[in-house]
Structure formats: structure tokens, C-alpha cells
């Protein structure tokens, strides 16, 4: 392990030690007798010493019983051992939805009516800092209860795009740090430990670095260091919750999983993420066979040994709202991708159930489907 990996290991130890304090304190606070020096409990007032310890979500608040989804070989299974496929969609960041007046149980009911069994919730670092931990806990508590009432599972996504080691990011909204990322997952793992609805943690949305000879101005990460980053966060999460499923991505905006073939994550029961938008594959002739071959070579091959969730898929016509590289397509992508996913046993989530972010699934807040929205709605309702 090189010096960078050691740096991450040292940081992990520090975070785990600090994060472990709430666990010990949560147990100790139940004691009736306190030590004389326990000022956090013996002194009244509004000082920093009276900030309450973090608390876990009360599973008794869930409206319905729900299976813990787990990994068995290269597939997800329910508690009866039957195969389970995450098939759903992304929503916008809760902060945006609150600002739009759309954060409500009615939104979750609409998604359930579309046939989704999964909602991916992106949390942007800039919003996390602006709104604060407790605000997001309150919103995610609501999301857990609403999703559970419709037997929907949640994928929680730390929605950063860039190079977390060197501190280069695609946009200010994605800026974060190693420490902030670890603290975020420590907070989430403690808050939602043993909550079956909060099924998957996507550790870092889209790692974007100079890779395979392509320079994009976001610096480099050695593969061993990226593995160390992923593994340290997995270890931290599992210090609190050994049931939630960690989901990890490769470089090239979470598209390329080939390095994992030689050096996979050295932890059991981990799933892999892919964002195979239509323009990421570039065969000379865009036939179904060639697209299948391109996907298989770059990321789909991993499904032979590990479970995969394509947590961002979708398309828009070249003249459509929000058209940009790499999401432009003539509409053939949807049928091709879902056929490939069915053949490989893949899970997936469409981007995005919001009229402002593209490629969008809805034209408006009356939930009028776009072209891709209508297609995936029909697919989800038939599954």
C-alpha cells in the first residue's frame, strides 16, 4: 500500500474513532447514573456541550414490514432467497424538490403508480452543507416512510462528479473532500442502520479523472488509491450497518468497470454501478449487436460475477429539452438497453423524474411523460 493509501487509512481511523463516539454515547445515555464530569448531561443550557448525540431512525415508524435485500453471488435476493431486481428512477435532490414545492408523499405515490420499486435519491455536497445534517435527516426520514408505504426501496447517492483525491470537480455543486465524504457515510450508516427501505449506498456518483489516455483537467488517481478510498468507506459503513449494500463505481463518469476485472473491491457483498448513457458506447455501426458487444466489453461483463445496478440510464432526442453529450439518442436506446439488462439480469434506475434536469422523464409537475418517460413507465408497469 503506497503513501496515499496510508493517508486514507489514517484518515479512516480518525473518522471511525470520532464516529464511534456516538455509538458509545448512545448506549451510555441510557444509564441513570452519570460520572460527575459528564457535563454534556449534567449542565443545562444551550452551549455546544448540550448538542444531542446522533440517533438512529426508529424502525417501528415504518408503515409496513419489508425484506432486507442482500447479495447472493452475482445477484440480489430477498429474504426468501428469490432474485430481486432494482427497477426504478432517480428523483432530484430533496433540496430542489422542497424549493419546487414537490417534496411530498404524493410524489412517491405517483412514482409507485408508474411501477417503480426503487428510487435513487441524489444528495449534492453543496446542498448538504447549506441545509445541514439535521435538515437532510428530516427529509430522508420522510422518504424512508413514504417509500416503505409503497414497498419501494431507496438508493442513496453521494452526488459528486470529479476527483475527490485531488479536489477537482466538474462544477461547484459537486465539490467535496475525503473527510466530508466519510463523515456523510458515517452519519447515514448510523442514522439508517438496519432500515430495510434504505437498501443501497452509492458511495460516489461519478469518479472523473484523466484516464486511458484522455485528459479532462481533473487530475489522476491511481487505481490502488481508488480501491483504498472505496474500501475505507465500506469499512466505515459496516462499522454501523452490515446489512446495507455498498455500491461502487469506476472511472469515466461511472462507465468503465474494466479495472475491477483485475483488481475488484477487496470486500465481500459489494455491488457495482454503471452509467451507460447512449453515447458512451461508440461502435462504428450502431446496431443492437454492436451496442451489446460494446457494453459487455466495458462494464457488462462484471454481471457474470457481481450484481450491477445501472443507476443512471436514459436518453433524449437531439432537438429535445436538455439534450447534451452523452444522452442524445434517436429512441432505439431504450428497447436495446432493457433487452440487454434482461439478458444479463441487471438492475437499473432512469434519470430523471423531474421536468428541469435532463434527460427528463416528465414534461411538467402534472407528470406528463416524455418520450423516455412513457417508454420506461410501460416497462416498469409490466415487470
TrEMBL record:
One of its GO terms (molecular function) is beta-glucosidase activity. The keyword Hydrolase applies. Residues 77-354 form the Glycoside hydrolase family domain. InterPro entries: GH, Glyco_hydro_5, Glycosyl_hydrolase_5. Residues 1-24 form the signal peptide. Gene3D superfamilies: Glycosidases. One of its GO terms (cellular component) is cell surface. GO terms for biological process: cellulose catabolic process. It holds the Pfam family Cellulase. It comes from the Bacteria. Keywords: Carbohydrate metabolism, Cellulose degradation, Glycosidase, Hydrolase, Polysaccharide degradation, Signal. Belongs to the glycosyl hydrolase 5 (cellulase A) family. This is Glycoside hydrolase family 5 domain-containing protein. It comes from Neiella marina.
Amino acid at each position: 500500500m503506497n503513501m496515499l493509501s496510508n493517508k486514507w487509512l489514517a484518515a479512516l481511523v480518525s473518522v471511525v474513532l470520532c464516529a464511534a463516539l456516538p455509538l458509545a454515547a448512545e448506549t451510555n445515555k441510557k444509564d441513570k447514573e452519570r460520572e460527575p464530569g459528564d457535563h454534556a448531561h449534567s449542565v443545562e443550557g444551550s452551549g455546544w456541550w448540550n448538542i444531542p448525540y446522533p440517533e438512529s431512525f426508529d424502525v417501528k415508524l415504518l408503515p409496513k414490514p419489508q425484506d432486507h435485500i442482500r447479495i447472493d453471488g452475482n445477484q440480489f435476493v430477498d429474504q426468501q432467497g428469490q432474485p430481486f431486481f432494482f427497477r426504478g428512477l432517480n428523483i432530484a435532490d430533496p433540496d430542489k424538490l422542497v424549493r419546487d414545492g414537490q417534496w411530498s408523499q404524493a410524489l412517491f405515490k405517483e412514482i409507485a403508480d408508474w411501477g417503480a420499486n426503487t428510487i435513487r435519491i441524489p444528495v449534492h455536497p453543496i446542498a448538504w452543507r447549506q441545509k445541514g445534517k439535521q435538515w437532510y435527516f428530516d427529509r430522508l426520514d420522510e422518504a424512508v416512510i413514504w417509500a416503505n408505504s409503497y414497498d419501494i426501496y431507496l438508493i442513496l447517492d453521494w452526488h459528486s462528479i470529479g476527483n475527490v483525491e485531488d479536489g477537482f470537480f466538474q462544477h461547484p455543486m459537486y465539490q467535496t473532500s475525503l473527510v466530508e465524504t466519510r463523515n456523510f457515510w458515517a452519519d447515514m450508516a448510523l442514522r439508517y442502520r438496519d432500515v430495510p427501505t434504505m437498501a443501497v449506498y452509492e458511495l460516489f456518483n461519478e469518479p472523473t479523472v484523466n484516464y486511458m489516455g484522455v485528459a479532462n483537467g481533473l487530475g489522476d488517481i491511481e487505481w490502488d488509491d481508488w480501491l483504498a478510498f472505496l474500501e475505507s468507506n465500506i469499512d466505515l459503513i459496516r462499522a454501523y450497518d452490515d446489512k446495507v449494500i455498498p455500491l461502487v463505481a469506476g472511472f469515466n463518469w461511472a462507465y468503465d468497470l474494466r479495472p475491477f476485472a483485475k483488481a475488484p473491491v477487496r470486500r465481500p457483498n459489494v455491488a457495482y454501478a454503471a452509467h451507460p448513457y447512449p453515447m458512451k458506447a461508440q461502435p462504428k455501426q450502431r446496431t443492437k449487436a454492436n451496442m451489446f458487444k460494446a457494453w459487455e466489453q466495458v462494464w457488462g461483463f462484471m454481471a457474470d460475477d457481481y450484481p450491477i445496478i445501472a443507476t443512471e440510464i436514459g436518453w433524449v432526442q437531439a432537438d429535445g429539452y436538455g439534450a447534451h453529450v452523452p444522452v442524445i439518442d434517436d429512441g432505439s436506446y431504450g428497447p436495446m438497453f432493457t433487452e440487454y439488462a434482461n439478458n444479463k439480469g441487471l438492475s437499473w434506475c432512469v434519470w430523471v423524474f423531474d421536468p428541469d434536469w435532463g434527460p427528463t422523464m416528465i414534461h411538467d409537475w402534472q407528470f406528463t411523460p416524455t418520450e423516455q418517460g412513457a417508454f420506461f413507465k410501460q416497462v416498469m408497469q409490466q415487470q
